[in-house]
């Protein structure tokens, strides 16, 4: 199997002169403040490990000062780690000489900064082509890749403009175009949208989601905003004082915050937009098949204290719902096996990836719980009303945010 695009192990960075002593104290479990008090050095990042798979949008989230920028700079060795390793496609960055490292930065991992340096006297197109020019690409290739990237971010008409003729949001898109034109494996984005006003920020998030889906880019995205993290991240690494407090998908973090610190953050998140039908999915308590005996199913319903059951066809698709009253009538009328006449359409279905906000009105409306189906209509599981209530009411203990 191919190695992950990025593998980070035990990554640690101390700023200051008493590095070894700070590392020793960190190893003993002392926190950043205490270490700073004793050594004057800052433990910016401590013992962070994770892998990022190809095509993943990996978010690093934490408050200001939590070590995000330090971490992202360690990822392409803009700064040297005090301990730990970074591997890009299985290659340890420490093993690279300067030339090889430059190549990795140009071709494998490129950085989109919050205030990335657009060249003020160059056109938008030249700015977009910048990484290619550095790489020594020919003029034709530069132009072709830059124009493709500008078109992708919706800025091709402004290719001949200068950066100062553009709005902040447009300049940010030029930065994104530059990273896309470079066509590197991994994009490192350090709070790229933080300085944008909310509407433009929303647009940029949409654009990034679209690009990531279309181009299957591997992205490491830094933010201090948990809603942004939840919106964009396949997985989220939560940092606090340089250490990992939790690593998981948005729904995992929301449903099981690792500690009060994370719980406090997640209490602000709109859970109905983060949790999906798939997250709330339960095994159905019972299902029936076409052809099952009406009497058997009726007895099973009685035992389960249910009034209806999903009836599946031979492929596991929902054929309909058998209700207890109709099964009883079928028996009275001498029909012993469940057939089309015993079925009613008293149910609703939803796809596993849909957020709660889109199906909450369908829950508890029918004799059977909401069915979660795949694209073929096969029943994957159900979302009973209790599952929705649990998920939405599981508001973690609120502490005061530090
Ligand atoms: N070059 C540096 N020298 C000394 N301390 C630094 C340096 N860069 C960052 N720090 C410190 O490391 C900690 C983490 O900073 P940073 O990585 O910038 O956090 P974030 O990006 O999450 O705001 C902070 O305490 C910060 O003051
Ligand atoms: Mg930062």
From TrEMBL:
Keywords: ATP-binding, CBS domain, Nucleotide-binding, Transport. The keyword Flavoprotein does not apply. Residues 30-266 form the ABC transporter domain. The keyword Translocase does not apply. It holds the Pfam family ABC_tran. It comes from the Bacteria. Gene3D superfamilies: CBS-domain, P-loop containing nucleotide triphosphate hydrolases. PROSITE patterns: ABC_TRANSPORTER_1, ABC_TRANSPORTER_2. One of its GO terms (biological process) is glycine betaine transport. Belongs to the ABC transporter superfamily. This is Glycine betaine/proline transport system ATP-binding protein.
């Amino acid at each position: 199997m191919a190695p992950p695009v990025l593998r980070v192990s035990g990554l640690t960075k101390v700023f200051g002169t008493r590095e070894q002593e700070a590392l020793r104290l960190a190893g003993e479990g002392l926190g950043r403040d205490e270490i700073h008090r004793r050594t004057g050095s800052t433990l910016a990042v401590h013992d962070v490990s994770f892998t990022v798979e190809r095509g993943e949008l990996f978010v690093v989230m934490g408050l200001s000062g939590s070590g995000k920028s330090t971490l992202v700079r360690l990822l392409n060795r803009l700064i040297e780690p005090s301990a730990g390793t970074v591997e890009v496609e299985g290659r340890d960055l420490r093993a690279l000489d300067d030339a090889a490292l430059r190549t990795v930065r140009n071709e494998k991992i490129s950085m989109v900064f919050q205030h990335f340096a657009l060249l003020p006297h160059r056109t938008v197109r030249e700015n977009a082509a910048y990484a290619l020019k550095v790489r020594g690409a020919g003029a034709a290739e530069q132009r072709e890749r830059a124009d493709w990237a500008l078109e992708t971010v919706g800025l091709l008409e402004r290719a001949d403009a200068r950066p100062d003729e553009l709005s902040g949001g447009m300049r940010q898109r030029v930065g994104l175009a530059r990273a896309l034109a470079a066509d590197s494996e991994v994009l490192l984005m350090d709070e790229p949208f933080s300085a944008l006003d909310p509407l433009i920020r929303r647009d940029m998030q949409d654009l990034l989601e679209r690009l990531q889906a279309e181009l299957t880019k591997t992205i490491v995205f830094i933010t201090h905003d948990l809603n942004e993290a939840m919106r964009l991240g396949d997985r989220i690494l939560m940092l606090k004082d340089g250490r990992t407090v939790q690593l998981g998908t948005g729904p995992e973090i929301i449903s099981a915050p690792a500690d009060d610190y994370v719980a406090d953050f997640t209490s602000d998140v709109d859970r109905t937009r983060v949790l999906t039908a798939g997250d709330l999915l339960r095994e159905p308590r019972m299902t029936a098949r076409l052809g099952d005996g009406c009497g058997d199913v009726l007895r099973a319903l009685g035992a389960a204290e249910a009034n209806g059951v999903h009836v599946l066809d031979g492929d596991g698709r929902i054929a309909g719902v058998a209700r207890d009253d109709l099964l009883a009538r079928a028996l009275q009328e001498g029909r012993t096996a469940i057939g089309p006449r015993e079925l009613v359409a008293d149910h609703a279905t939803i796809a596993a990836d849909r957020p709660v906000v889109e199906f909450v009105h369908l829950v508890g409306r029918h004799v059977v719980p909401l069915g979660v189906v795949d694209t073929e209509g096969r029943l994957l599981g159900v979302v009973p009303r209790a599952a929705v209530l649990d998920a939405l009411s599981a508001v973690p203990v609120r502490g005061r945010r530090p």
